[in-house]
Write a structure and sequence with these properties.
Strand 13 and strand 14 form a beta hairpin. With 550 residues, this protein is an alpha+beta fold. The strands form 5 sheets. Strands 3, 4, 5, 6, 7 and 8 form a 6-stranded antiparallel β-sheet that branches. The chain has a 6-stranded mixed β-sheet with strand order 10-11-12-15-16-21, with helices on both faces. Strands 1, 13, 14, 17 and 18 form a 5-stranded antiparallel β-sheet that branches. Helix 9 packs parallel to helix 10, helix 14 packs across helix 18 and helix 18 runs antiparallel to helix 19. It contains 20 helices and 21 strands.
Amino acid sequence: MKQNKSYRYMPLIMATCVVVGIVIGSFFANRFSGNRLNVINSGSNRLTNLLRIVDDLYVDKVDIDSLVEKAIPQILSELDPHSAYISAKDVELTTDDLKGSFSGVGIEFTIRQDTIHVQNVIKNGPAERAGVLAGDKIVSIDDKPFVGKEVTNEEAMHRLKGPKDTKVKIGVVRYGHKKPVFMTVTRGEIPTKSVTSVYMLDDDTGYIRIKNFGEKTYTELLIALAQLSQENFSNLVIDLRFNKGGYLQSAVQMANEFLPKGKIIVYTEGRKSPRQDYISNGHGSYQDIPLIVLINEGSASASEIFAGAIQDNDRGTIIGRRSFGKGLVQQQIGFPDGSLIRLTIARYYTPSGRCIQKPYTMGGDREYEQDLITRYQHGEYFYQDSIKHTGPAYHTALGRSVYGGGGITPDIFIPEDTLGITSYYKEAAMSGLILQFAYTYTDDNRQKMQKFEEMLELVNYLKKQNTVDQFANYANSHGLQRRNLMIQKSHSLLERDINSSIIYNMFDEQAWTEYVNQEDRVIKTALEVFRKGEAFPKAPEKAKEDKKVK
């Protein structure tokens, strides 16, 4: 019985041996006959097989994971400026700002000349407790230099953010100090809001400033509108200046609140992505309120979706300067290790059919990266005639001309104000001295200023303190020579920047916004448009019959 049973399995055993023999023979044949190169040249598997060959045959041991980590960003950079790879350790850091909170050091910064400049220090935040000052320049993080081309927004956030209660050591160059100052900051939870300012500009006009489009933006908008409703607003200004965008869905939800039923808000379409229309459902509670949207060169992505929907549907008036020009849609695709890619899968189009993505060259384009600087040099910030549209003219439902190929062009252009700008003012602003003085002044006079509960009370107090003269003395002692004629010419600008920073330090961004908006030409223009009853666009007087929506 046992002998017959063994004979029964003999064919299976022989077949298994044959398969194993073939596999082993193929392996050694390929390894030593050069056939592996033929596999590489087969097409789609070349990259995978290249990595296998490097792992098998390279003279030294190679960290394949690290190699892939470096290769993927290079591959994606060959596609367009916005396709990107995010490593597993960076995923949370890059999405925190849109989630309503993050763990970090608590500073607001800008990058100038390949160096981090601290613009503001969040009140009662970790950085403030450690002694970081507005105006500081961060030059090292965790005892490693951090200056030069490696200084990007993404890399700065990666190094400064981190789990709560972890520590980071930063070195700063401070105006007036010959050597760097070092501080250790214990990271903490930093709340963030999309809607940063809500108040009444006058008896009739509500104002909402939106910093980005995150998960909670629509909810924050509804709360802001309810707050303004209690103050009986009948006009509305939505400020999207320097709003870099965020989630498309948040912009769609927001636009839906102001559009009647059946209007296209935006549509997306790509080679492998069928057209998808986003249509208003008519449930918005503010479909008839006079509306003005403010934009500038810092308004991008979701900001442009909202502004484009309002403009193309003739729902409101757009005021300011031409927006950034990002009309590409990214989809997040995750990998098993937790990393992901943001791959451009489509373009988005405004209701008139225009794509407002500015031109770019596949494989990297320095001109694209320098576009805003180029606009400035060409005078676009100062003269409407200097705006260069790279796309054709489209038309709204009323027949008004609008343009694609490089951002949203406002209905009313407001140039950047150059009145009072001098070389002294530029150096004072760019050096960080104004911010540093404002922080020092705040710290030295905090007890006196704490008694002021309203922003206007503090403003009146500061006007009597001659802060510009105090700043000039401070700046002179820190290396910026006093120039009385220039100071006199730039007095109003210096006073605005100094006092607004002190107000921000003592109150918050809401108070800061209210103060700077008082003399803002864009705000004044918006109020004038409302007074004239011109917030709703009108059809051109000589609209031709062939002007149809594309």
